[in-house]
Amino acid sequence: THAAPARRVVAGLVDNPPTVAGADGLPVGEGDLIQARRNDNALGVANRQTWTVAHIQDGAVWARPAEASRATASLVRLPADYVNQWAHLSYAATAYGVQGVTAPASHTILSEATTAAGLYVGMTRGRSSNLLHIIAASMADARQQYTDAMARDRADRGLDAATRQAIQDVAGLVEPDTARIVNQEKARLRALAEKADANAERWQQAADILARQADQHKHARDQHQSRLNAAQEQLRQTRIAALGQITALAAADAQGLAAARQTMETAADAARRASLFGRKSALRAADMAQATYRDVLAQSRRHWGSAPNGDDMTAWVATIAAEAVETTPQVTAARADHDQAKAALHVLAREQAHERQSAYGQVYGTAATLRAPSRTAAQHARDWRKQAESARAELANITTIPLTEAAQLIEQNKAGRTQARTSREASRAAIRLVPDQQPQPHRPLPWEHGPSLGL
User: Fold this and answer.
1) What pLDDT band is residue 455 in, cutting at 50, 70 and 90?
2) Predicted TM-score of the model (pTM)
3) Chain segment 163-206, per-residue pLDDT in tens
4) What's the chain's average pLDDT?
5) Does the N-terminal or the C-terminal CB of the chain have fewer CB atoms within 10 Å?
6) Which residues are 61's β-sheet partners?
């Protein structure tokens, strides 16, 4: 994988600049062969699908299927983020990774881990040639390595065939049951790893769907909240401006009423103290001052609904202004905008709750609409990946040790699993039940074996 791109650049088959880094850290250039390692329906790529890079533009890779011709193939665009995380050069791959691939020529390297199935896959990929490379001290050593590989691990051809072959291979060396136990366990672990991989992939797709929905919901909520905040600030500023105007008007009216009252009281006092010759004109002036005061008082009550009572005009002005400001056209319009933005946010929250509940029901099953699942889809995907890794590690372990030791280890692991299962059942049986309530059989919930979201 390191040497092939360099040789292709020298040969003029790959245009090195511009390049983009793949998931393996190696540069990917025009003409390179790459492999996708994650399903993405939106991009139109599948896991382990191979592509030929047509050109690179703004960090994105435009590629066509590796097996398609340049003239008829349609291109897909792989963003730089996808290439950085989920694509790498594919000049060399495992036998598992090239299943279903057809190439002009195939080169297979024999190792101690190569099986008969792996040889078959590697030696049937090339259209024009298929070469097997064996590192050996002599021709006899090469033949022996090839013979050992062809006899190694045939469980993937079927359990019955694997059992018969294992019995033949170890006849006279180990008991037939030993080979049967080991091959059955290998088949079980392979099936377990494949099932775990499939479930991990489905759960990861479900996690991606829920994550995209959450991002979309947050973006919409942020927009509505920004509009609400703006409307709230506009309402506050409008109140402040209107309150200042109303306060000034109310204060002027209060001062006018106070001046009219003072004039009335002064005129009345002058009438009381007037001499005989000036009393008539003083009384007339007092009546006019009283009438003026009553007019100003009536005008204040008509306009404000009340009038200052006593000397505490400041408290009256503040009370009147606070009440009147809410009825001004400016504040009424600003409050309507605020209420509309607030109602829109509440409607959005209800709609998103319904969408979220629907998505959870599709991913986790209808039970999730009644109670939230205890684990997220991403956690389920991580658990299934760990289970697949554990199964493969256990498979690799029993493959590399002698059959007798492998059989003993398998029996020990089986006994451990049986004991753990018995302990769990005993713990459930020890739980105190409510009187007259019968224990219900356990029914697997929808998310225990994979999401149901059309995946």
Assistant:
1) very low
2) 0.45
3) 555 555 544 444 557 888 888 989 999 999 999 999 999 999 98
4) 82
5) N
6) 56, 78
